[in-house]
Amino acid sequence: MSLPLLLLLSALILLFAYFTYGRFISKKFEIRDEQPTPAHTQNDGVDYVPSNKLVVLGHHFASIAGAGPIVGPIIAVTFGWIPAVIWILLGGIFFGAVHDIGSMVASLRHKGKSIGVIIQQYIGQNGKRLFLIFSFSTLILIIAVFADIIAKTFVKNPGVASTSALFIGLALIFGSLNRKLAHKKSAFLWLSIIGVFFMYYFVILGNSIPFERNYVFWVGLLLAYAFAASVTPMSVLLQPRDYLSSFLLYGLIILAIVGVVVANPEVKMDHNIVFNSEDIGYLFPVLFITVACGAISGFHSLVASGTTSKQINKESDAKVVGYGGMLIESFLAIISVCAVMVISRTDYVNSLSTDGPVNMFADGMGFVISSLGIEEGLAVNFVALTISAFALTTLDTCTRLARFTFQEFFEESDNKSVQKLTQNRFLSTTVVVILSSLFLLSGEFTTLWPIFGSANQLLAALALLAVSVWMIKSGKKVGFLLIPMFFMFVVTLSSLFVLAFQNFEKGIYSISIVATLLFALAIVLLILAKRCLKKEDEKVGA
């Protein structure tokens, strides 16, 4: 199959799914605009801020994307591009998009609170505590890893650091002007056009004014930035930066599509399906863990029920942001697969071990985009910069999410002093940044990172469990939720069992212990959910 045909068919399938299955899912959740959203009922000007759906889509897409839909799908091509593409399309439409909009709508109906609070209300207090501890630990791990990745990128490429700083300055100006001119209908459009122009201009300018500093400096500055992004009102920094940054990825997608059509590069990757890879294991469950963000990712539930739900202006926006945002990410995952289909399997295996998936994506897309008359080196740099910009988005969003999680854990504490202190956003963010710093300095994040894929997909299974229980208790049919939920539990429990067993044999006890604990967590929450539903049935029967 040619790359233009693959992209065309994928785009048509995803568009058709949005207008058909997306409408079906919206009806299942009984989405209606008559019901005010938490952005209005809880509006505090800091976290709860009703916003334009395109701005919210930009924030949500930038937050959930990162490098996930690039790294995962490229590694998954180890099993062949055919199974990778099939899972991305099926998983994105019937699993990931349902998971994202489900988490978002559930949060909208519960004052913009996270999945943890929903678990508390429908499964129990112990379930909430276990889920929030798990979520908080995962977020601290992500913050530490991404602070390390970005700091090393800035040291290696000071031009990227300069461009990132310029982006932040631009976002502050855009946010300020957008608030002042909000009463003028055409102002947002013109601000967007001007903001996007300067953003692309800063891509070029940043490379000409490199800002060189050492690793420790960048780690400190990045965590200070993450602190500021977590405590300032959404409309000041986080929201406008994410919105403008999303146009980098939109631009990358458009350039990739046009480049593939114009160049029509030869597909050199074979059509073989590999069921057992010596490097990463068996196709099941590894493929479904590895593709992650390209099909379904538990991290999305934290964003959807964390920052995004607090900005939704009206319920119908959830379809565009939640369901639509996931399908855009799935399309980006298809583009990532295309980026490595232009090389042979031998070259793919060699490049994966030497260059890594991010560089492979940058080189592949740089080659394709250069067919449009753009110098290949500049194209490669643009792709690499886009990925770095989204890594920074993941860092600041995760810091805010970790703050929410920390506050929700203590919001019903019996100790009123503890409750009051932990609800202070400055203090709770300080705790998040300190813990992330200590974890980063300890170096333990590199040991535990390999288990993140399984932990992330366990989050997805647990989010689907919470949404399913809520819907069942509301008297709704939930077959469209139960099928992906059970599948993700089977996938994650299988993966965790294999991780625990293999790492125990290798003597890597830290990963083995964590995998065992996560396996136990999943079983405990399933049991709690079953007991909860059984009690509900007994009440109905009585």
TrEMBL record:
| Record carries keyword Amino-acid biosynthesis | no
Main localization is membrane
Coiled-coil region(s) at which residues? none
Q: Where is the CstA N-terminal domain?
A: 6-350, 352-495
Protein name per UniProt: Carbon starvation protein A
Q: Where in the cell is it found?
A: Cell membrane
Which PANTHER family does this one have?
INNER MEMBRANE PEPTIDE TRANSPORTER, PEPTIDE TRANSPORTER CSTA
Q: Which GO terms describe its biological process?
A: cellular response to starvation
